[in-house]
Design brief:
The chain has helices at residues 10-33, 46-66; strands spanning 2-3, 71-72. The protein has 99 residues and is mainly alpha-helical. Helix 1 (10-33) packs antiparallel against helix 2.
Length: 99
């Protein structure tokens, strides 16, 4: 998806999007600072950050839905796919054989 940055509402959308991310990043920095020497995937801050990430994702999706008219489908560039015209399975990826 592409966003129309020339639309008059784009600066408003962009500012709201940035505010959502800035809020999350601030929380992430604060939570991770509580455990400066922790190195692991099971970081104690994750108990706070996981729900915050979900909320961020929900909020960004809602914002995109609110400003859905700013988003357009990007045209597909089929120039590189000319050799696949007669291929009945153009989306199949062949993997090397197992040894």
């Amino acid at each position: 998806m592409a966003v129309d940055k020339t639309h008059p509402d784009y600066p408003v959308y962009s500012a709201k999007h940035k505010a959502l991310w800035d809020t999350y990043i601030k929380l992430e920095e604060e939570e991770e600072a509580k455990y400066p020497d922790w190195n692991g995937k099971d970081h104690p801050a994750n108990t706070v950050l996981r729900p915050a990430r979900r909320r961020l994702s929900e909020d960004v999706k809602a914002l995109q839905k609110e400003y859905d008219y700013l988003f357009t489908e990007e045209p597909r560039d089929d120039k590189d796919d000319d050799d696949d015209q007669d291929d009945p399975w153009p989306d199949v990826v062949l993997l090397p054989p197992l040894r």
